[in-house]
Amino acid sequence: MERVADGVVTESAMGFFTDVTLCIGCKACEVACKQWNQLPSDGYALTGNSYDNTSRLSSTTWRHVAFVEQMDREVPAASRWMMMSDVCKHCTNAGCLEACPTGAIVRNEFDDVYVQPDVCNGCGYCVPSCPFGVVAVQPKSGVAQKCTLCYDRQKDGMEPACAKSCPTDSILFGRVDELRVKAEARVANLRAQGKEVRLYGVDGEETRDVGPLNAFFLIPDRPEVFNLPPKPVLPSRFQPAAYTAGLLAAAALTALGARVFRRAGGAA
Amino acid sequence: MPGLGTLYGRGGATTFLMDLEHADLIIIQGSNFAENHPVGFRFVTKAKERGAKVIHVDPRFTRTSALADQYLPIRSGTDIAFTGGIINYVLENKAYFEEYVLHYTNASYIIDEKFVDTEDLDGIFSGFNPDKGTYDPATWKYELDESAGGEASQADGSADDAKGGGTSPTTGGHPAHGTKRPKKDPTLQHPRCAINVMRKHFARYTPDVVERICGTPKEQFIDLCKLVVANSGRSKTMTYCYAMGWAQHTVGVQNIRAAATLQALLGNTGRPGGGVMALRGHASIQGSTDIATLFDLFPGYIKSPSLERGEDSFENWKKNWAKPTGWWSNWPKYAVSQMKAWFGDAATAENGWAFDYLPLNTGDHSHMPLFFTMKDGGVEGLILWGQNPAVGGQNAALQRAALGKLKWMICQDLFETESAAFWKREGVDPATIPTEIFFMPAAGVAEKPGSFTNTMRLVQWHEKAVDPPDDARSDLSLAWNLGKRVKELYKDSTRKIDRPVLDITWDYESDDPHERALGEPDAEKVLREINGYVVATGEHMKTFADLKDDGTTAAGAWIYTGCFPAPGQNHTRRRTGDGWVSLEWAWAWPANRRNLYNRASADPDGKPWSEEKKYIWWDEEAKKWTGYDVPDFPVVKPPSFRAQPGAKGMDAHDGTAPFLMQEYGVAEIFGVQGTVDGPLPTHYEPRESPVPNALYPHQQYNPVLKEWRRRDNPYHAIGDPNYPYVLSTYRLTEHHLTGAMTRWNSWLAELQPEAFCEMSPELAVELGIRNGDWVTVSTARGEVEAKAMVTGRIAPFKIGPKQWVHQIGLPIHFGYQGLVTGDSANVLPPMVADPNVSIHEAKVFTCNVRLGRRGASHEGPTWLPVPPEEQTPLGTPKRGGRVESGSAEQVDHEIASPSEIMAGARRRHDLDHQESEG
Amino acid sequence: MQTSQPHGQNYSAAGNFSPDAVAASMQRGDGGFGRDQETYFDHPILRKAHWGSDIIYYFFAGGIAAASAALASLAKRGGDPDDAELVRNGRYTALAGALVSSVFLIKDLGRPERFLNMLRIVKLKSPMSVGVYALVTFSTNAGFAALDQARADGLIPFNPFGWLAKPVRALTGLPSTALMSSYTGVLLSATAIPVWYTGRRHIPAIFACSAASTGAALQSLLLALFGGSPRTEKKLATIELFASLAEGALLLDWEQRAGDAASPVFTGKRGARLKTYTLGLGIALPALLNLSSVLSRKTPKKHHRLRTILTSSLALFGGYVLRETVVLAGRDSADDPRAYLRHPE
User: Fold this and answer.
1) Each residue of C7-43: b (16+ CB within 10 Å) or e?
2) Which of B5, B490, B642, C152 is the most exposed place for a label (fewest CB within 10 A)?
3) Residue in C55, C83, C117 to test binding to A, most A beta-carbons within 10 Å
């Protein structure tokens, strides 16, 4: 099984290319995913946030369509309504995977990040460790859940449910290296038409910590507009400083204690 | 449907969805393509990837606008002004495709001198009878060439389509010209040749007027006209896509005709990447009209016999419908084969093919009059198959009340719909409802085999994957078993009146013991009957060309003949695609043609107009038509063929006549027959509007629209101060129709869990409404509460320097049953309909909005009569939408605000009181 | 049923359609947003941990257990017979604390029955994995120490694991105790939550100091309640004083350096609570009360029972509030997308 090293994508990585400029906001991806994985609904409440009533990814929503309205009364031709299907990024350097103490979260043979539901004990440490806020523990099942990149379907040579159901091929599934070629071509095509677009998750500064994302995007605006972090952090990077601080303090306190409880005769 | 049918010959999309990829320009108007046909929309995005431009014209900025290259706003109900504006531009600039127009349309045909246009009659055409409220189309015809031989029309000249209910999706009821030929002017100079009549008709539809009426900025409109012209012609084509945004108006059919006319002028129809893509398909609606769920149609668009048209025998029926020229000269073959399919051996030449077994139409039995009659206590029983009028019907409160007057009702559906549970709704005491209701659970689409006909006339078979649960059964099973039991009850009857029940062919028993045990019939046997067979041998029909009028063939619906040409060869099962025309993927009617009228993709000599737009052409060596699709033309008729004077049937058409369902084989841009509200589309305001008709101030709305002035169906006055805003209803991707299937599904319910009312920030600011507040929308028919969705995607329409029209919108999906519930938007509109097809006007009517919840029950009219002294002369037009003289407005004057109109009109005094009946 | 609504305005002149009115309405979120959106409907980008009281008790008890074990070890090593009570109390409370801490950790799991799965692997990159092994090792050592103590106290006839305890404790005693006292701070810091990761150079040290001060406070309390030498009491008070002052200094330094990033901890209701019960009543007040006796060179002759009970209780509660504040403030700060956007690292 090939592994990813130094941020270089190896041949076997399978993932998604999600193109915001082709998304019609139909939410077929959300529903197909829920149906295939038999996930419950997240509740019924009108949010008033454009046509987005599911709000974000959760332990029971593994594809989520965001709606961004930018209406311009001064220059009506500049008005736009952008829709993006968000998903787990299946990072090359995954914060959730690094944090998991049971080894439930693994990287499978398709190079995707997978939570083994029979191993996870719901400690929930992966949750604050994900820089994209994706994975969550479902209260009912007690285990962490997220997009599996349809691991079960992939093993049978099928494409994930969301990609299959997307009517405009806004979601493309395939080998990440091949998807990148298509993505670059699409960016060039759109830029030639005067549209300002960029790829998120290929080689921009957002990949500094988490590496290239196996599920990457073409976005026509800044990442935060779509609830994506412009600079996602990989938490393991913070450990050296943290351990140092803690152990130094512990050492100093031990020295203090040794001094206070020194043997009679002055020996400490 | 008649919009396309009366102009081109068949009531259906002229092209297929995959062909959109080959369009250079796609205009989506009167449609929310991406939201309601997301899978079909894939071909629009593919077209964009190939460089096509996509334009969306709509009152709201929707998910379709989000993917379009450009969005143009248009005030609801003003589409004819818009399209007419483009027609005017094309005519003024001589930008029409001259060769196509000359040979393939009736542009050069000279119109009878007795015809008078709306420009000369202040908003109406010649032939209007104000007492009957209908048109006599006798003057809408050609001037005939008497010297050229041929016979006059055999039909009763007074045959009046409108009285018989007026649903004529293909061609009209009366052959106007017999086998004579019309006079023509190939130089297009004659003042009465069709194109010049049209020129005059649309002369005032200038960009300025379009801006004033539609609220579309002039520069944007002119740019669009230029784009249209640049993308039509020999080597470029454009497609119009439309849906309910055009159909659901009192001028619905004319909305569609306007685009069809434009496409004919530009030479786009019948060509790859061109034509008119009518978007329908929900719930197999195309299949529903093909196999006739309309009151006045038999399967295959054969008009059912009507007493009002004097069709009381087979011969009288045939006289009106078997045309002397064109494809409909084959009418007898189809009608006879149909009767044989239904009544088998009991239908013979001697007894007029069992004509006496058929019920005759005696009036308008469409949905609205049916429900009025029901409300008045005149209907005993109702069977509802997958229909939910309690939520889907206009003036829903009236429809719900009507259901409560039935003695019994059978409702078959997947879930307990609002109609099945109408007795449980808010504010009603079930003890007061006498109706006995039988709820029969229905099998879902994967639980039964059958066909589904989508928007491109494609008939696709779907297989049964699992048994339905418990007692759920297919709709077919209920119909078949009901029939079996009724037949059993009647079996000992000797009465003549019971013969139809006894003689109707009803053998659809399944050969599969499992299905038999479930009580399910064999759906393929039904398809076989629809396809047709030779009576004597049972051999399947292979083509409708082989159908006979002598009783030797049977076919349930001639347009489907050929879909099942032999046992085991159900073509609708096929699934081989080729990325474009895909003739081996399922089967489309007629005869598996995908792009209709494709003879028009070649020039009069049979050569493609250009290499880029090659589709069908004449092969001189093989002496037949060939190409990428099934030719929509007699395959061996050469382009050089010329009809002899007095010729009949298809011999009356030249080898250059692509529209073979039409009388002379040409597209009728001047509609001599078929539409009951005029041969040319004309701008009228909707039945309810905040502003007067800027073009014809004395003719507010469609003079022959269908309305019912009753106390329980009140209409608002023009510019009624109580209802100053325009309301439009529409659908969302996440729900389906009345939500009867989707609001019970948790995955869909969470996507759109509550009813909301979209409004502009400008209106919200005015009314003090914030995003998410409860608001109540009211009309004289009732009130509905929803949460406000304040969004910049809705904008007010500027129709004058100081005049604006506010528009708000409500999705129709909500009702009181299901996992998620809400008020039904259809409580608000009145029952008013297009006169051709009785389709309701759902896309535009007036309303009011206020902050706050609605409180008590919203059933029933809330309209308080406005005292006479406060009524406006424009407010309540006479029947026919006529507005009395003295308040005439000149188009080039500034349109005053309704308050100014009211003030001025009061001075002039002429009031028309709204009548109430019932 | 009223139907009339004044309608005139919508047909009147420009006033209601002024760009300002529209822009204002759009700004309020009543309509479309402009192109300068900062976030997606102010939705969180991160997801907050589910941690609540269970984890707070786990941290609190764990810290006390670690410090109690350390104090007992140091006292035993120092060999002062006056400290015998401390050794005994320390050893037993270390084990009790380890067990209590484990119970809360297991209880907090979504699938408590699967807690042993954490021992399937050793993942040094995961502070949770490191911490679990630290906890297991510490608990084992605490168990060994308690057995040793029980045999010394005559509660059991012999210590069956005596032979094993010595090498294990020698090898793992110091590291496991040191980790127990501070790894919880690393656990928080090594996440994507801005409050926590921007405080990574402080939180683990603060937790270690707090462990020491609360551990010492608990031991003082036990001595005050159940009897012990005043000299031991003074030693404990010394440790408590220095540890808590260090804790306070670190907290203030953290507030100063992190600024806006740490505001969920130091401002608002949480900040007021922290400043009152931890900095004020938990650190400053006991320090003031104990200062004279700690600094005095005289050998203490008597207990200051009531004073000890008071200061210990205050210190313990202050330590609890510290954990509570840092955990909950950090947890809830995940809901603020702007914090993440403003504090990239």
Assistant:
1) beebbeeeebbeeebbeebbeebbbbbeeebebbbeb
2) B642
3) C117
pTM for this model (two decimals):
0.90
Given this model, what pLDDT does residue A75 score?
Answer: 78
Cα dihedral angle (C121, C125, C130, C132), rounded to 10 degrees? -50
Stretch A73-89: mean pLDDT = 90
- Chain B adjacent subunits, 3+ CB pairs under 8 A: A, C
Whether C45 sits inside 8 A of A226 (CB atoms) is no
Instruction: Say whether A25 and B754 touch across the interface (CB within 8 A).
Output: no
Of A26, A44, A82, the CB nearest to B38: A26
Give A186 to chain B, closest Cα distance, Å. 9
- pLDDT computed for residue A266 by the predictor: 52
Domain count within chain A: 2
Residue type, C218: L
How close is the nearest chain B Cα to the Cα of A239, in Å?
A: 40
- β-pairing verdict for B458-462 and B533-534: unpaired
Q: Is A35 in the B-facing interface, judged by CB distances under 8 Å?
A: yes
List phi, psi (to 5°) of B607.
-100, 145
- Together in a domain, A69 and A144: yes
Task: Write down all domains in chain B, each with its CATH number in brackets.
Answer: 2-143+182-281 (3.40.228.10), 286-360+525-573 (no CATH), 367-514 (3.40.50.740), 706-899 (2.40.40.20)
Residue in this structure with the two tokens 């691991």, named with its chain if needed: A151
Same domain, A33 and A160: yes
Q: Which domains does chain C have, with CATH numbers?
A: 53-329 (1.20.1630.10)
- Paired with A216 in beta bridges are A17
Answer for the pair B797, B215: CB distance below 8 angstroms, yes or no. Answer: yes
Q: Please, which pLDDT band fits residue B918 given cuts at 50, 70 and 90?
A: very low
Residues 6+ apart with CB under 8 A from B788: B756, B757, B759, B764, B769, B770, B771, B772, B773, B774, B775
ipTM of the complex: 0.93
How far is residue B162's CA from residue B132's CA, in Å, rounded to a whole number?
10
User: What is the share, in percent, of chain B residues with pLDDT greater than 90?
Assistant: 75
Which H or E run includes A67?
Answer: strand A63-70
Contacts of C8 in chain B (CB under 8 A): 899
CB pairs under 8 A between A and B: 102
| Helix, strand or coil, per DSSP, at residue B516 | helix
Strand (E) or helix (H) holding B789: strand B782-790
CB contact (8 A) between residue B753 and residue A45: yes
Which secondary structure element, helix H or strand E, spans residue B437, and what is its range? strand B436-441
In the structure, what pLDDT confidence band is assigned to residue B11 with cuts at 50, 70 and 90?
Answer: confident
Q: A120: helix, coil or strand?
A: coil
Q: Give the whole-angstrom CA distance, residue C341 versus residue C334.
A: 11
Q: Quote the radius of gyration of chain A (alpha carbons, Å).
A: 22
DSSP code at position B869: G
Chain B contact present for C302, CB below 8 A: no
- Residue A82 lies in domain: 3-233
pLDDT digits (tens, 9 = 90+) for C42-51: 899 999 999 9
Separation in Å, CA of C335 to nearest CA in chain B? 22
Residue A68: which of A54, A86, A80, A55 has the closest Cα? A80
A40 Cβ under 8 Å from any chain C Cβ: no
Strand partners, B776: B785, B850
Query: Do C187 and A125 make contact, defined as CB atoms within 8 angstroms?
Result: yes
pLDDT in the model for residue B283? 76
CB contact under 8 A, A254 and C70: yes
